[in-house]
């Protein structure tokens, strides 16, 4: 696992914006899109989307995964960008399983790319054009971005364990590809069900996590207490965990269903499902909802299953579990 200094390098290097350029006069320059300044406030709409490298490392089978997400600088604008010139990964692309639907804000660990053993020093580049603004990120097996997806070395936290059948095989951490395929009909809800469990952190580690979260979310927190400042937003150690604050009881696991890609938007009956295991690592709880599709075609929906560390592990890139489900709608 990287140190906070390495995470700072990662977050501040979320994307390298590539902007269309010319040799215009000052009047023309005023009309061209430009990258946002670091401390510039987010806009409600009309902003860029930055592809983000989260890190890379081995999966449970020893295969190498590169994990990616994105940062949509729009406060309220969600965008659909089909695979093609405006949403491509090269070379040998454009389709590497990336999303076509982009939620607002920072989205962690959205998909993973499994690379061959002879990948070596090769590089891939993800290019996104949103609201007329193009940004790219190039990624490779850079040692500084190596991640242990399955255990945080500082606090021994591990990601939730999930399965898609009561007696089915278990999976944990990021995954590449499709874990389940379902069939559905237009306008008729289809069931999305999984079972989840989690190994609780040791008591002393929980106390350390709570203290770190309190420092990061305190009104008096200094910029130096945060991992980074990106797009005017302080991304702190505990920033992603505040969403569950005040819940009673606070969930040990949260299952989040997301629209990943497809010809139209997906309607979830319940997109966020909190689960309370009370620290029982042997207890698998069922999380069930439905999804409804208005247009025929092939869709992919994403289950992001968080423990108490929250989205993106609070910036640590561990520990959560992601799975993609294909739904063929007729």
Shape: globular
Mean pLDDT: 79
Strand-and-helix sequence, N→C? HEHEEEEEEEEEEEEHEEEEEEEE
Please report the distance between the alpha carbons of the first and last residues: 44 Å
Structural class: mainly beta
Biggest beta-sheet profile:
5 strands, antiparallel
Task: Please list the strands of the largest sheet in the order they lie side by side.
Answer: 11-10-13-19-17
Explain what the structure shows.
There is one protein chain. The chain is mainly beta and 330 residues long. It has 2 domains: 4-145, no CATH class; 161-200 and 246-329, Sandwich (Immunoglobulin-like). The protein has 3 helices and 21 strands. The strands form 6 sheets. A 5-stranded antiparallel beta sheet has the order 11-10-13-19-17, with no helix packed on it. A hairpin with a 2-residue loop joins strand 8 and strand 9 (133-139). The protein is globular, with a radius of gyration of 20 Å.
Q: Outline of this structure?
A:
The protein is mainly β.
């Amino acid at each position: 696992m990287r140190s906070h200094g390495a995470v700072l390098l990662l977050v501040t290097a979320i994307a390298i914006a590539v902007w269309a350029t010319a040799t215009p006069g000052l009047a023309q320059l005023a009309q061209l899109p430009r990258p946002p300044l670091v401390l510039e406030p987010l806009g409600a709409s009309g902003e860029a989307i930055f592809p983000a490298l989260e890190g890379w490392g081995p999966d449970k089978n020893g295969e190498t995964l590169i994990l990616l997400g994105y940062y949509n600088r729009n406060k309220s604008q969600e965008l659909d960008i089909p695979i093609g010139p405006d949403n491509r990964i090269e070379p040998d692309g454009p389709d590497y399983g990336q999303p076509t639907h982009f939620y607002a804000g920072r989205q962690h660990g959205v998909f993973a790319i499994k690379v061959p053993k002879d990948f070596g020093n090769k590089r891939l580049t993800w290019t996104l054009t949103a609201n007329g603004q193009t940004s790219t990120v190039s990624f490779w097996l850079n040692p500084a971005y190596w991640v242990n997806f399955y255990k945080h070395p500082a606090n021994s936290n591990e990601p939730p364990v999930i399965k898609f059948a009561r007696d089915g095989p278990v999976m944990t951490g990021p995954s590449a590809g499709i874990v389940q395929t379902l069939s559905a009909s237009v306008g008729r809800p289809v069931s999305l069900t999984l079972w989840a469990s989690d190994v609780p952190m040791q008591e002393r580690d929980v106390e350390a996590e709570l203290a770190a979260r309190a420092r990061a979310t305190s009104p008096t927190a200094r910029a130096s207490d945060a991992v980074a400042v990106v797009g005017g937003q302080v991304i702190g150690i505990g920033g992603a965990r505040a969403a569950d604050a005040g819940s009673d009881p606070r969930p040990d696991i949260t299952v989040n269903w997301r629209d990943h890609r497809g010809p139209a938007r997906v309607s979830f009956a319940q997109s966020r499902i909190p689960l309370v295991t009370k620290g029982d690592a042997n207890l698998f709880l069922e999380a069930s909802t439905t999804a409804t599709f208005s247009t025929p075609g092939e869709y992919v929906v994403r289950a992001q299953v968080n423990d108490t560390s929250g989205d993106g592990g609070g910036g640590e890139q561990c520990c959560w579990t992601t799975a993609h489900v294909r739904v063929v709608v007729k």
